[in-house]
Amino acid sequence: MQTIEQLLESKQIRITAMRLLIYKFLAEKEIAVTLSDIENAFEKADRTTLYRTIKTFEDKGIVHQIDDGTGITKYALCEEGCNCDIKNDLHLHFHCNNCNETICLTEHKIPQIKVPDGFVSENVNLVVKGICDKCSV
């Protein structure tokens, strides 16, 4: 397994203390997080630095964006070996209507959807909404 530093280097991302901290923060979460969650975790950090780090991680395929229908973009780490490829790496997301948490269900892949000729797929998102296992007990 790669270290965080090796992962960042392999994606041609310059290693900084803040990038390491944000990666560790995301890795500790079992749920997708908002930019506000990251800002709250790093209150003394510059907001622009946090946003640029997430944007860099997204551009380089370290995190993916999730639109769970709440109107607030969430982010989660990509699984190892993911290239965020629309044909191979898409997975299901689950949004709990009770606790408002969204999780990646990476073991459940979204099948490739063929769109009509002339259409170009740029993003596919499948969110199941309901009650999560923590809230249903």
From TrEMBL:
Point out the coiled-coil segments of this chain. none
Source taxon at top rank: Bacteria
- SUPFAM superfamilies for this protein: Winged helix' DNA-binding domain (SSF46785)
Q: Cite the InterPro entries for this sequence.
A: FUR, WH-like_DNA-bd_sf, WH_DNA-bd_sf
Q: Indicate what this protein is called per its UniProt record.
A: Fur family transcriptional regulator
